[in-house]
Task: structure prediction
Amino acid sequence: MTPMTSDRPQMLVEEFEELARHAPESARLEFLHGKIGVKPMPDGNHGSIVAWLLKRCMQHRPELFLFPEQGLQVESYRKGRARPDGSLAPEEYFVGKGEWAEPDGVLMVVEVTSHDRDADARDRTEKPDAYAAAGIPVYLLVDRDTDSVTVHADPEGGAYRSLTTRAFGSVIELPDPVGITLETEKLKDFAD
Result:
């Protein structure tokens, strides 16, 4: 049996998009490294973290917006499809872009881990690679399993060259082009 890779995917990107269009609302589908993945439905703490980040971004960068669940074309040659928990971009960047937008104007993507067995591979390995390959400047991972935040920055050659991890409660810098300092004490309230 031939292993699935982005060169030998389970299906064509166009077939995936058609499948995703007809999936029930409870199934949030993604297509990374040639295979379909299902994002778990967020719980209350997950949603609260995204809302907290949205508010921080609006306070510090009012010309930007953290768009929840916007589909992005990622990976090399835009062959992947991801739905980050948040995409930081200029306020009207996604107007008219459709379900799976080019990520060229996205300054940062955010993922908040869910408590499922696929979170490690998806949020810690597959997505950083996909987002870096797409040239997204910053990837923020809020990791509820380790009570930490990790900033991935400086994408080059399909990987982020800079990684900074801090425990919940620490201060962490989101580098340019984001340019926000996050005080993460509040995230302790959402840890579970």
Summary: Residues 42-190 form a domain with the tt1808, chain A fold (CATH 3.90.1570.10).
